[in-house]
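User: Can you help me understand a structure? I only have the sequence.
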Amino acid sequence: MSRFGVAALVAVFLACASLTGASSALAAPPPEPPPLIPPAPIHREPARYPAGATGAANVVLELVVKEDGTVGDVLVREGAEPFAAAAIEAVKAYRFEPAKRGDRVVSARIRVVVEFTPEADVPVEPKPEAAPPLQTIPPPPPPERVDEVRIAGTRLPPPSSPMEHRMARADIRLVPGAFGDPFRAIDALPGVVPTVSGLPYYYIRGAPPSAVGYFIDDVRVPYLFHFALGPGVIQPALVEEVSLHPAGFPARYGRYAGAIVAGRTRDPATELYGEGNIRIFDAGAYVETPLAKGRASVGLGGRYSYTGALFSLVAKDTTINYRDYNARASYEINDKWRASLLTLGSFDYASQIQYDDFGNGTERVFFASEFHRADLRLDRRGDDGAESRIGMTFGLDRTRIEGARFAQDFVFGVRARHRAPITRTFDLEVGADAMLDHYTGDVPSEYAVQPEEYAQARAFFSPRTESATGAWVSGRWHREDGFDVTATARADVFTSVGAVEVGPSPRLTTRLPVGDKTRILGVLGVAPQTPAFAIPVPAIGYRGLPGGLGFGWQKSAGVERDLPLKFLFKGMAFHHSYFNLRDFARNQNDFSFDEPQPVPNSPAQAYGLELYLSRRLSERIGGFVAYTLSRSVIGSTEIAKERVSPFDRTHVFQVGGAVYIGAGWRTSARFLTYRGWPDEGEDATPLRPPTRRLPAFYRVDARIEKRWKWRKDGYISLVIEALNASAQQEIVSRNCNTFDESGQQRCRDEKIGPIVAPSIGVEGAL
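Assistant: Let's start by predicting it. Here is the structure, written out as tokens:
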């Protein structure tokens, strides 16, 4: 990291200090502020008991009481649907006597508990010692408790793109075929095109998997899923929501030309909380508890697979193992500052014993990889709504290559950003980050291998240090009517073995209201990235930035509209151009991972239309319809014509829904179909691209759950779920060069699958 990176970070720290009015640590302490008089409720409407719900429930909400006594932002801290939605709807109508600090009226952040009890006509098991009720009309709910008051301005929502798709935890766990995994659920969104059904490697608006970045709380991770059909590497109980940014992502994200998948962890626990599950192939759990009278919290979780034992029963020569761990600690230093430590780790191993003609077995390792991350950060939230974050990340990536040789990447990163309201309608964010990657590997002796093999090993595994340093400034103009325009200027500097490249990344996003329920959306942006494998592999990359940076030019426009019955419609047209990116190949007959420094693909482009109609799955009846009409094209070269990408799927359509049946039963299902790949038959050549398509594929995913409540807010569920319950095979190639005995031409299809992933398990929460 050069002087540029240090200077950029110093500039951000100085900006943070100037915008927040921070004082020097050596300055005299400020005078003690006058005591706070918390808000007092003056009008409350009882919360309506949700239709179809059963039993009593409590929902803890954190809300902002503004200076005029109305309710601003509302966040759900504890509680499940459908009670959470009903509680939010109720508190929006609350009115308060505003908080005061001395004689000054201030906004305040408070917590309330909204209690739900069944209506009189809903059968409820009475307690044995309880006397029969004396009245048929139930009394109004008791007044909500108000506590944990602290001064805060209206918290500004985090900057996001109009393209962003957000999925909350309550909805994610109901997506059939996702197995409750927060990040696997994104394949239910438009614009996401699978390579092969069930595998978590996606093309997003034509960008290959290597152009998609994965983050959790701003921390970059090399991958989010275990090998093949494995689950996510992060415990679902730790993740509050997942966002897909197909274009124009927030300024803090960069260095990827395609899309960003970002997860946000849940807030620190205010009481003992835990979730766990036991399935036929693995078990996982996460538990978090508050400490120091609620100022601190500690959480620990992980997952362990026992597929090795299962495979030993049906395929003794095959081994598949995976495991992961997640841990978090948090401490509230004062009413503005909080320190947090987040650690993540994952391990995968897949191998098979192969026998020669003499019966001698040799283990062949298909995949063996691990990564670890430790992220320490400080977060600050000011009285005026300003937010700051300073973070430091340490990591290790490790991948087994041939034999017993390994490649390693030691990761170190620092970042800082600050966002503050300049006026009531304009916010400014500045930030910078720097990443160092020190690669090492086991390079064989040049006398032990062929010259071309030695050149390849040096290109991939010889020691080197690479850096990426970036800085940005972003301004957001917003109004209460929904008008929102964000302009971002970002640039990154990349270095590797003496090579230096600069990647500018300007972005402009707009959300323009047309009436009360309709918004016009637009995005323009440029996104650079370094050379990368089409499928990201930890600790393995290209040396010296061969061919220069890759770029994605992103252009999107569309409309969003609120519909009756809580439905939301979103339609987007997009055109993305890609330069210098490395995909698998120009055609499916030309796969090659042996070139030490392959040249980038020709300029490519993807364009199309995305349609999305949704109602939250956590509602009593929820569902979605997603359709992507797109075309991905690879440009011409001196020896090849322009052609459709070998992984293009013109149509991707899916429809799904979830229904709460009652008595704790909930079921959901999804139908997915997409057009086949271009037919790369023997008649297709560089000068004669394919004109036919392989047959379309479809699958049906299903999920059913029975939940029993226990203790105060806990539950135990029996969950039966299946991906590709219809057991369909996918055709990936077709060879028509065979003939039968009568001389008739015959076609032979190469199929994958059926890839079926059944799951029977028990889930529970404290």
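Now, to help you interpret it: DSSP finds five helices and 42 strands in the chain. The first strand starts at residue 36 and ends at 37. Let me know which part you'd like to focus on.
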